């Protein structure tokens, strides 16, 4: 395996990319942020549709996601692009980042008009990219890896090959003293047994059960909960049964196995900063883009994403490595797949052997090899809304 | 040869990667390496029992309990909704 090298940040965290993040504080300045970021190589843009008309917990969650995304160690520095009148105040975000020791600059479109604001933004972003280029990678231990695990576009191979292989990589990283983040609470409903003996702290267990209960209640409110295999809690869809899934436990377990078998040391809310090393579960929906966005804000510096059917999605600041267990998907959709776990299903490789190869790829991507989603410019970013906009 | 996968060595079922007919020998891979003979026709993606499972015994896949048997299941038989219920949900 290659030696792991990363960017050591002032707060002790390790980044595997060195992006200048152009971050709009509100949807209204998102287009200007894109024009700035896409004009300057070395910039990443986290464009989104949030920021105004948000209330209570929904507003707090959006602010937390924006702030903690900017704190991610894959980000060298931040150019905030504000409009000037939004609820998700760019001034507050700037103060938060300055207090945390993050290099941050800001432009407010109300002060410059749009075209001049974009021109000024390009100049500032170019300056930050030059500053970033002075940073050098240094040797870092495997424990520097903060791995987020995700699955989307699942098929019957996901639970049999890709997710167990990702779970084995997760266990290897935790064994090295690193961190793993598992999310998608909707896909833990029915898989609680997988975690019963893996939580030693009562408060952590109660928090996990609470998040699962809330998601279960929400799912019951919606008619869509009875469509396409998301029937909860007691039913799985006719298609699942036809495909061979017998119980809801079996279905959920196929998804949850990607977190590995380590002790659950902590449970955090969506986009909350990671507090402990080891396996942490984060509250999120099963919607891939929102889930990955949340885990990146939590502090993930690399993502393993399993997909039986294939999906192109990525993230602006963190490499997303796609794994499939389906050999047909790998050959038909090569731009959506980085790694094949199909040899496990075909019997040519063991889970352990395949997982060791995948860990090797994780290290190479961490060291700078572009994941397919990065090469495609897939900077998908979406914040989980938990309220109605006013 | 037709194949099936068992993720954990504790599993008492394996998932078939091919459609099989009664009497066909199946090679099981994963953390278990053994052969099992199908005693009835079973579809790809469905589960086959790797050993005799008593009524009321846990069904283990991925190394964890995915349900409980409602009747005795002989080795090589189809394990599905006709002989298994969820342990958590009871259906």
SSE map:
The complex is a heterodimer of chains A (390) and B (91).
Chain A: E1 5-8, E2 14-15, E3 19-24, H1 30-39, E4 43-45, H2 56-71, E5 75-82, H3 90-99, E6 103-108, H4 109-112, H5 114-133, E7 138-139, E8 146-151, H6 158-175, E9 179-182, H7 202-221, H8 238-243, H9 248-256, E10 264-268, E11 278-282, H10 288-298, E12 302-306, E13 320-324, H11 327-332, E14 339-340, H12 342-346, H13 351-366, H14 372-375
Parallel strand pairs in A: 3-4, 3-5, 5-6, 8-9, 8-12, 9-11, 10-11, 12-13, 13-14
Antiparallel strand pairs in A: 1-2, 1-7
Helix pairs in contact in A: 1-5, 2-10, 6-9, 6-13
Chain B: E1 2-6, E2 13-16, E3 25-30, E4 34-37, E5 47-49, E6 58-61, E7 64-69, E8 78-79, E9 84-85
Parallel strand pairs in B: 1-3
Antiparallel strand pairs in B: 1-2, 2-5, 3-4, 5-8, 6-7, 7-9
Overall description:
The complex is a heterodimer of chains A (390) and B (91). Chain A is built from 14 helices and 14 strands. In chain A, the strands form 3 sheets. Chain A has a 7-stranded parallel β-sheet with strand order 10-11-9-8-12-13-14, sandwiched between helices. A 4-stranded parallel β-sheet of chain A has the order 4-3-5-6, sandwiched between helices. Chain A has a 3-stranded antiparallel β-sheet with strand order 2-1-7, with no helix packed on it. Chain A is globular and about 60 Å long. By secondary structure, chain A is α/β, with parallel strands linked by helices. The N and C termini of chain A lie far apart (52 Å). In chain A, helix 1 crosses helix 5, helix 2 crosses helix 10 and helix 6 crosses helix 13. Chain B is built from no helices and 9 strands. In chain B, the strands form 2 sheets. Chain B has a 6-stranded mixed β-sheet, with no helix packed on it. In chain B, strands 6-7-9 form a 3-stranded antiparallel β-sheet, with no helix packed on it. Chain B is globular. At the A-B interface, helix 6, helix 9 and helix 12 of A face strand 3, strand 7 and strand 9 of B.
């Amino acid at each position: 395996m290659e030696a792991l090298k990363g960017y050591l940040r002032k707060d002790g965290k390790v980044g595997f990319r060195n992006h200048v993040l152009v971050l709009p504080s509100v949807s209204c300045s998102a287009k200007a942020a894109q024009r700035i970021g896409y004009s300057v190589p070395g910039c990443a843009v986290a464009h989104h549709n949030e920021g105004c008309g948000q209330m209570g917990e929904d507003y707090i969650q959006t602010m937390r996601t924006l702030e903690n995304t900017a704190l991610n160690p894959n980000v060298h520095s931040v150019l905030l692009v504000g409009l000037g009148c939004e609820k998700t105040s760019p001034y507050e975000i700037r103060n938060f980042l300055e207090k945390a020791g993050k290099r941050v600059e800001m432009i407010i479109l109300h002060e410059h008009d749009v075209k001049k604001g974009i021109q000024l933004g390009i100049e500032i972003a170019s300056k930050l990219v030059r500053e970033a280029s002075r940073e050098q990678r240094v040797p870092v231990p495997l424990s520097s890896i903060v791995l987020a695990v995700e699955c989307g576009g699942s098929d019957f191979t996901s639970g049999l090959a890709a997710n167990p292989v990702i779970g084995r990589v997760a266990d290897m990283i935790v064994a090295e003293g690193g961190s793993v983040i598992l999310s998608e609470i909707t896909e833990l409903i029915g898989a609680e047994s997988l975690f019963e003996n893996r939580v030693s702290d009562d408060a952590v267990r109660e928090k996990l059960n609470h998040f699962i209960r809330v998601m279960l209640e929400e799912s019951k409110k919606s008619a869509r909960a009875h469509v396409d295999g998301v029937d909860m809690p007691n039913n799985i869809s006719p298609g699942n049964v036809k495909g061979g899934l017998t119980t809801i436990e079996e279905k959920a377990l196929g998804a949850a196995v990607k977190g590995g078998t380590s002790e659950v040391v902590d449970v955090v809310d969506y986009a909350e900063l990671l507090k402990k090393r080891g396996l942490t579960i984060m509250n999120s929906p099963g919607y891939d883009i929102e889930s990955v966005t949340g885990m990146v804000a939590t502090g993930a510096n690399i993502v393993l994403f399993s997909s039986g059917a294939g999906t192109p999605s990525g993230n602006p600041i963190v490499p997303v490595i796609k794994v499939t267990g389906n050999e047909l998907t790998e050959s038909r959709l090569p731009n959506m797949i980085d790694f094949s776990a199909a040899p496990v299903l075909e019997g040519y490789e063991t889970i352990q052997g395949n997982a060791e190869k995948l860990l090797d790829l994780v290290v190479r991507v961490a060291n700078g090899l572009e994941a397919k989603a990065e090469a495609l410019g897939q900077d998908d970013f979406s914040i989980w809304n938990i309220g109605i906009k006013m | 040869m037709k194949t099936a996968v068992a993720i954990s060595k504790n599993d008492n079922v394996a998932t078939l990667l091919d459609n099989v007919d009664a009497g066909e020998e199946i090679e099981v891979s994963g953390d278990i390496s053994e052969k099992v003979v199908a005693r009835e026709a079973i579809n790809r993606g469905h589960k086959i029992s790797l050993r005799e499972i008593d009524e009321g015994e846990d069904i283990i896949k991925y190394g964890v309990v995915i349900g409980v048997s409602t009747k005795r299941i002989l080795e090589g038989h189809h394990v599905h909704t006709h002989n298994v219920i969820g342990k958590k949900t009871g259906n």
